[in-house]
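Hi support team,

I submitted a single chain yesterday and got back a structure, but I'm not sure I'm reading the token output correctly. Could someone confirm the output below corresponds to the sequence I sent? I've pasted both exactly as they appear in my results page.

Thanks,
R.
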Amino acid sequence: MEKTTQTHPFPPLYDARARVLILGSFPSVASREQRFFYAHPQNRFWRVLAAVLDEPVPQSVEEKTALLLRRGVALWDTIASCTLSGSSDASIQAVVPNDLRPIFAAADIRAVFCNGGTSYKWYNRLLRDALGREARLLPSTSPANARWTAEALTQAWRQVILPYLE
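Hi R., thanks for writing in. Yes, this is the structure output for that exact sequence:
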């Protein structure tokens, strides 16, 4: 598959009540087409987050948005634009990071979490020093991370995220 330059097609999701910020790397093809986070049906993000928060799994964009805002979770990606092949994180190059400062200015973000190694790598490389904020690596909810079951992901995420939301 040919590499193309892509620009992030939708805004961050947050409000003043946000206490944690979860960062993905860059939206998949499905997410870019639907213009919303974790739109690929095989991605386990929504199932895992709902289980962590002891909530029903949201189905619509409206339900997903309401869940995040109600529970104090901000959602965004580390990358504003890059070149890549399809949805492959491994192919990402020529990265321009997103500006996270508006989120920190609007909300009392207590912790930053990266959903997977690619997000974590680019956060540490391009954003950590400028923001003066450490991020914690979470195992990726991507279907490419097949060695982690949904149950194991939920347990790992619950242990680190919940203390910041209580």
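A quick pointer for reading it: Residues 62 and 81 are 26 Å apart (CA to CA). Let us know if anything else looks off.

Best,
Support desk
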